[in-house]
Amino acid sequence: MSEQALAEQSKDLQLACWFVEATCHQKGLEGLLGSIDFLSEFMTRFWYQCWPSLEEEGLTIRRSKLVRLDRELNQILFTQPMLRQTNTTLAKWRQILAFEHKINSNPESLDALIEQEGDLTMATFDKQATAFSSIEISQQAARVEQITTLLKSLESRYASLSQDQEGELFTLTRQTLSDLRDYLQRLTQRAIPLPDEALTLTQVLEDSPPQSTEAPVRHSPQAMSRELAISQMLAIAAYFRQSEPSSPVPFLMERAARWANMTLTDWLQEMIEDSGSIREINNVLTGKVD
Fold it and tell me: Domain extents for the chain?
């Protein structure tokens, strides 16, 4: 409803914030990724025309709406499952850590605690985590990184447009994203990549002896697509993170997967800080001459 109103009726910052909040509720990190990008573009295009007006206390009201959005997103992300399984919320993870702390402080209280609070032991969670999808975890981790980058860009855009000196807008959300990054890292260490999810390199080597030019070509049983290619990059990252924690491969593969979802302009903005250089490169690519 907010999306339709923004498109057809009004340029209202409150509606834009409600749209971001609703999309995050409905679609999780994937929805938040697109809606934060939308909010940034909305402010860029309509900052001087949107409601509330900048006259009188307009800037203060606008900031309050964005700060409220920060609180709402923080709460949504804290209680929203990160994976298909409902027990993969950050809130649940905090309960497990608190439960473990109680056990470590008083080991004899284990049975009583389980009776009172349920089985929130780390051992039980570790067993459940073996059924988690390593690809899904890697995809969510990549989204967390992208959203963090977009929020930083949104705050910079807001500061440039508003000249507001009060500080950052999305402090709570960015902290929760940081906590989610650590949480997903923990899930990666616990999840076991399934044969159809990860490319197990040792098996590939065993199944692929040196072949002559006359050897038949093996075709993948699944047709390659852009989505499948990205998923395989994330699966490789998950495999190396579990088997070789010190390897740089997970970082490189996840970055490559994230770049695959970027436009060339977005990639240039991430890699090059100098806006003049970006403009010159875009001119070359588009054939424009100053």
Answer: 196-203+225-290
